[in-house]
Fold this sequence. Notes:
Elements: H1 3-6, H2 10-19, E1 33-35, E2 38-40, H3 44-62, H4 64-101, H5 120-149, H6 162-176, H7 178-197, H8 209-212, H9 219-258, H10 268-315, H11 318-340, H12 353-378, H13 385-393, H14 395-416, H15 421-429, H16 434-439, H17 445-475, H18 484-543, H19 546-556, E3 562-565, E4 571-575
Antiparallel strand pairs: 1-2, 3-4
Helix pairs in contact: 3-4, 3-9, 3-18, 4-7, 4-12, 4-13, 4-18, 5-6, 5-9, 5-10, 5-12, 5-14, 5-17, 6-11, 6-14, 7-12, 7-13, 7-18, 9-10, 9-12, 9-17, 9-18, 10-17, 10-18, 11-14, 12-17, 12-18, 17-18
Amino acid sequence: MSDSDDKGGGMSDGLQVELFHPESDREPGDTNIQAAGFDVHPVVFPVALAIIALFIAVTILLGDTASSAYTWLFNTIGETFGWFYLLAVNVFIIMLLYFAFSKYGKIKIGGVEAEKEFSDFSWMAMLFSAGMGIGLMFFSVSEPLYYFQNPPSFFGAEAGTGAAASAAIAQTFFHWGFHPWAVYGLVGLGLAFFSFNRGLPLTFRSIFWPLLGERIYGWPGHIIDLVTVFATLFGLSTSLGLGVAQVNTGLSYVGGDMLGAVSVPTGTWPQVALIAGITLIATLSVAAGLDGGVKRLSTLNLYLMFALLGFLVVVGPTVYIFGTWVEGLGAYFGNILALGFFTGTLGEAANGTPTAWTVFYWGWWIAWSPFVGMFIARISKGRSVREFVLGVLFLPSLFSTLWLSVFGGSALFNSLVGNGQALATYNDVGQTVAMFALLEQFPLGVVSGLLATLLVVTFFVTSSDSGSLVIDHLTSGGKHDVPRTQRIFWALTEGLVASILLIGGGLTALQTAAITTGLPFAFILCLMCYTVYLGLDNEYQILESEEFAETIQDLSEREDVDVVTAGDQMVTDISDPSDDTPAGTD
Length: 586
């Protein structure tokens, strides 16, 4: 995308700059250092690189001690700050819904003349692939099976019963439904608004302009962006580590247990080798850029997901699946408020659910949110605040519940009605093999198992691609376009960090990295709720001002301009009627 594209449409570009942009002579990346194919911020890039290198060195040198430290830190944060994670994410949901359904919902991201860059289908494909593709593949079978045997005490169900199955689906829906997408949506909305509507750098520091002003370009802004880089990198590394563990186990299970042909070794070092190979594939895609690589792979991901989903709906217990979906939605909606605030503090032990599962998920989503939020912001210009929220919050959430019903519901059917083999294999081998053990129970299990493995790989690649683009924005002073060399550098760095965490402590190290970096970032997001409100309120006041009305009146008198207003006469769109190119064509 060209620089001119970044700034909105031609007719209202001057209008947007004159009335809406803050008075500042700073430009994104105006103090950058350009050398050796890099275009980097003089503070954020070297400091982030130094701290990442120090972290890697300490993890390698401490060895087993690092692994023990990760376990202790994970448990301590969950037990001490779990209540804060739960409270914060509920606040995010409330604020996001308020922005969407209040008077601010009609505000357009990018200004009144901004047009959609991507079609609705491509937009949904990219945001969903970036959001939680690997996680859904990893947990959609293993998590319901875990709760089936260890029902959360919140539901008071007996293990191994139909009541436990209902509780398992509801709890899984809760972890993968509206709450994570509210975190993503809030971050994406803030980044998109302050970048496209205010002309500020596409970095997290820009969201705090209403409070910091020009100081976002100083050390307060540097610190905000540094915390964002670490949260993004370690949140991404967690997902990559989970994904490669599933790829490793999947290849081993399909090749050895199902085909009896190839014995693929499993463990840390084979997974490190897989990370290296898949990361090299990711560098090719990230080098192609947003349109050439990420969009095409995201669309491919969606087609592969629909293929795998449709296959299991047809060959699996179809009626049971849809019954599970409806019943699960009922249990989820009926308990969503109480589940959102359930810490397990009162009464009997909660089977570790809030700390071991919910707090980890919330920390992971928060750590993952700069990456997903910035990526969503990058692709969402031209959509109203209300359209943005409804698209980001509701559609992916409902699709996630359908996906979980198909795979989790089939696993519960196999446990309650079938031969119970999926649960037995899960207990014997572990959660990484749960998906493949389930697919083996149906026709063409080998084919569907290989398709599932391919889908995890493509999710791995798109996550690495998108993460590289986001960290590029952060470490280049908010520039939208960065050199190819720099994108490749961060793609390789992400693979290296994920590998080091696997070597230094396995899955616990990955989970600890996510929940630890998510903690300070949660405080930043709480403050961000207020700054986004200030920004939207200021935008609304300008749209209702006499100065803006006079400018619009002058534009309305021109034959080459169409002005669109909402019911209360607030201007929502300015377009050139001679341009008949459909919005969002890509």
